[in-house]
Design a protein that fits this description.
Structural class: alpha/beta
Oligomer: single chain
Shape: globular
Radius of gyration: 23 Å
Strand order of the largest sheet: 7-6-5-10-1-11-18-2-19
Bound molecules: zinc ion
Helix content: 25-40%
């Protein structure tokens, strides 16, 4: 079973590679003493900056005909229609940290959701920590932003405007923490073990009263879930019928899906896998604005919100499912309500950036039905367990025969294959020799497009090599990254779908700016989510770090014109 579990988190992408210089930790620098944001003229000073992430929202799902808030952002905002992630390993933790730091993952210390620490060969989570002081309230997990080696937008703001407040909220810890950063005043996320929204001891010793009230004693009795129905019901989808082969059976393949029934733990889990998670997250975001008076205090505040349900529903049923269609409409409604709340509380004086941390591949069964499956493997699903066992078998005969254990020689994570250097030496071999063997066997495998070593990625001009370089973090990323053929899905289960590849279905994301002084325009320029933090930071007059990968985009109405209009 241990092996089985290792394989799961594993391999979902096999990435890695090359050289990269880590940014020095800018947090250690002296904060800038003055508070420049306090003296800005009001036109130049939005009172609230918002980053709104919708987890797993593919660009093609964000359309102007959505009746609620997502549609409104498209109809009224500055829309970059060809925006992409500029890195190759597309999962949640790096996808969020690039929005908040303006840097590709290679400079942020966050290559993926999980990685193998080369020194200990231990499996690490992107926002875990070993300091018990950072225990998540109500659980035994330990979480902090300490693995992030770059500053975030919130860190810049707190350094340069001490009176500004910085908050972050999400259905997931890794989204809330990577968006909120190190100096946030409050970072909250939903946790099934805590059975409500919680935080880490890193940010606070206890939850503020308003979050405790929001949770209630039991969230479904006197807390945020008390109005939720017993089940999540929906109709047929616009692309296909509700019941479809390849969808997950975990929470039923068809409507209705249990939501608020059973034991407390069951309800907490059912909620997590439903669009009601976002209903709760957005409600808490409004509570934060109200309790902390964000955007209403004469300084510029910052709030990050990451809505997770699109991802969770997408993993189970795929992006063209009836569940995904219904979930999107509910998120659209939630966002509409949230925007109206921002309009009212800030008098419209806020700016907002919408994006996603990654997209997702459609179910292979759907791609097969629609003639879009190009994977050379029948059905499009690569069995991760077979692949790993085959790899262990080869390593056994080549390196660990007769009494060694190949499972100790390599570690799998979503950021590649990591070789255990000390064990390789013990066996009379080296990292390079093991990598060469793995590369050869990988490249013989049907469904594998390329297996990239670190040195190959350093020298290759292949566009995929550049993307993987942007994901590479020394000491965390694997020694070998396996790039599968387009539409081949590496997965442990014969149902559901995922993301993590460098292909456009995983990398093409929404990028919309919206709010005070934002032009209503559409652009086909290739821009990236790393442009969010510098664009927002420049707008409010922050001094930006000099080594950002992203650029400040011009999405604003010319100030001179506005001044003129005001005097005419
Ligand atoms: Zn995600």
């Amino acid at each position: 079973m241990g092996l089985f579990l290792r394989i799961i988190s594993v391999f979902v992408a096999l990435l890695a590679c090359c050289h990269a210089t880590l940014a020095q930790d800018p947090i250690a620098q002296d904060p800038i003493a003055q508070d420049p944001l306090l003296d800005k003229p009001s036109l130049d000073k939005p009172s609230l900056v918002v980053i709104l992430a919708v987890d797993q929202l593919r660009a093609d799902r964000l359309t102007a005909d959505l009746p609620g808030g997502l549609g409104r952002l498209v109809r009224e905002g500055y829309v970059f229609e060809q925006a992409t992630l500029d890195h190759g390993l597309t999962n949640t933790c790096p996808g969020h940290v690039v929005m908040s730091t303006g840097m590709n993952p290679t400079k942020t210390g966050i290559p993926g959701n999980n990685y193998i620490d080369h020194d200990t060969m231990g499996d690490r989570y992107c926002v875990d920590d070993s300091d018990a002081a950072f225990t998540v309230l109500g659980t035994s997990d330990i979480r902090s932003p300490n693995a992030i080696t770059a500053e975030t937008f919130g860190d810049w703001l707190k350094q340069q405007s001490q009176q500004s407040r910085v908050f972050s909220v999400s259905g997931k810890d890794r989204a809330a923490i990577t968006l909120g950063g190190k100096s946030a005043d409050g970072v909250f996320w939903y946790n099934r073990k805590a059975q409500g929204f919680t935080t880490s001891g890193y940010y606070a010793a206890e939850l503020p009263d308003y979050v405790q009230q929001f949770n209630g004693k039991r969230f479904f009795e006197d807390g945020f879930g008390k109005q939720f129905p017993a089940a999540w019901a929906h109709g047929e989808g616009k692309s296909r019928k509700d019941d479809y082969i390849g969808e997950s059976e975990m929470h039923s393949r068809t409507s209705t899906h249990h939501l608020n029934t059973g034991e407390y733990e069951e309800r907490a889990d059912q909620l997590y896998w439903s669009p009601y998670l976002d209903v709760a997250t957005a409600a808490l975001a409004k509570n934060i604005i109200d309790a902390e008076q964000l955007g209403q205090r004469g300084v510029t505040d910052f709030l990050a919100v990451s809505l997770s349900a699109t991802d969770l529903v997408g993993h189970l049923y795929g992006p063209f499912s009836a569940e995904a269609d219904d979930s999107l409409l509910r998120v659209d409604e939630v966002v509409g309500d949230f925007l109206t709340y921002l309009d009212e509380t800030t008098d419209g004086n806020y700016i907002l950036a919408l994006s996603a941390d990654h997209g997702v591949q459609a179910l292979p069964e759907w791609l097969s039905d629609t003639g879009e499956l190009t994977c050379p493997i029948e059905g499009g699903r690569i069995d991760a367990q077979d692949l790993v066992l085959n790899m262990y078998w080869n390593l056994y005969w080549e390196f660990t025969f007769p009494f060694g254990d190949p499972r100790d020689l390599i570690g799998f994570s979503a950021v590649g294959l990591t070789v255990n250097e000390s064990y390789a030496k013990e066996l009379g071999s080296s990292v390079d020799e093991v990598v060469a063997s793995l590369e050869a066997s990988s490249e013989r495998t049907v469904g594998v497009k390329a297996a990239w070593t670190v040195s190959e990625l350093q020298t290759s001009e292949d566009p995929f090599a550049r993307l993987f370089r942007n994901s590479y973090v020394p000491g965390k990323s694997g020694h070998l990254i396996t790039q599968f053929e387009e539409t081949c899905l590496l997965w442990l289960f014969p149902e559901g779908t995922s993301h993590v590849s460098p292909y456009m279905y995983d990398r093409h994301i929404p990028l919309v700016f919206f709010g005070a002084q934002v032009r209503n325009e559409r652009s086909s320029q290739a821009r990236h989510s790393i442009d969010i933090a510098p664009t927002l930071g420049k707008r409010i007059g922050l001094t930006l770090p000099s080594d950002l990968d992203g650029k400040a985009l011009d999405v604003w109405q010319p100030v001179a014109d506005s001044d003129q209009a005001a005097t005419e």
